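Query structure, 282 tokens:
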């Protein structure tokens, strides 16, 4: 999600996208992590303030920190409330998805520009939302955001290995594109990562299999496969090697068909009279 959010923000800052900015609904990481990563990717402070807004659902998701801070302030008489950054807004009631949606849209409407302002939304963890909300309510939240006329795109992350398959399928139905990451190296016997194997961990830390399913308007689904390589702060995609293609082709069953007709079959075919043929004799 860090790399994807940084790429969307960079395109918005450079004017290469319809969206004027990106609203990040942060559940799994603090806003500082996103801002620091985007700075290392080359976004200057002016671009961050202009094109990035973060709704902080990580620091105080249900408002307990604010209550403790208020009690301490009353006891000490000092102002202990820290000021929010310009592009960070703390959200303290993640159970209220209606309010969460309104706050997200309000942040997007704050981007500067002429005419109709479009913006993108990134929800960094549906898995975290499922701790406090139902699948139906989250699906409604995402559907309402998708149908908003100012939102150009919305993308979200879910850790499918933490949930039952039916949960992942429910959110896939809402998506026009589904991207999944799988370990680059797995045990050939058990088809999973070997726990404690350092070489496997190092390999999978910097490389993964990237599968993409793209739904087209005619109902067909296009499947793409690439290798993903993490190189410092950058991500590089490499098309699947010809070797893997040859291997996959060799795994297909070899079926042979005899398309030649015998003499008797050719004779029977020649004597067939089709109903639409003119049978009159001249």
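Result returned for the query:
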């Amino acid at each position: 999600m860090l790399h994807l959010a940084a790429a969307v923000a960079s395109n918005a800052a450079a004017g290469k996208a319809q969206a004027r900015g990106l609203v990040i609904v942060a559940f799994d990481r603090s806003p500082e992590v996103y801002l620091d990563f985007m700075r290392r990717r080359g976004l200057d402070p002016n671009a961050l303030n202009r094109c990035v807004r973060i709704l902080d659902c990580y620091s105080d998701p249900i408002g307990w920190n604010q209550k403790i801070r208020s009690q301490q302030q009353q006891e000490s008489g000092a102002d202990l409330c820290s000021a929010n950054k310009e592009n960070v807004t703390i959200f303290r009631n993640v159970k209220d998805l209606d309010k969460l949606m309104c706050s997200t849209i309000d942040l997007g409407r704050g981007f500067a520009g002429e005419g109709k302002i479009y913006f993108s939304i990134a929800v960094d963890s549906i898995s975290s939302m499922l701790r406090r909300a139902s699948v139906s309510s989250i699906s409604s939240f995402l559907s309402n955001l998708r149908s908003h006329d100012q939102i150009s795109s919305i993308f979200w992350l879910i850790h499918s290995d933490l949930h039952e398959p039916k949960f992942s399928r429910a959110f896939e139905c809402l998506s026009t594109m589904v991207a999944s990451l799988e370990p680059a190296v797995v045990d050939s016997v058990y088809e999973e990562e070997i726990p404690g194997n350092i070489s496997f961990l190092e390999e999978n830390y910097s490389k993964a299999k990237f599968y993409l399913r793209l739904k087209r308007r005619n109902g067909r689904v296009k499947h793409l496969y690439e290798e993903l390589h993490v190189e410092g702060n950058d991500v590089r995609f490499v098309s699947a090697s010809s070797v893997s293609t040859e291997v996959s082709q060799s795994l297909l069953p070899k079926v042979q068909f005899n398309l030649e007709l015998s003499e008797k079959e050719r004779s029977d075919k020649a004597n067939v009279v089709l109903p639409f043929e003119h049978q009159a004799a001249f």
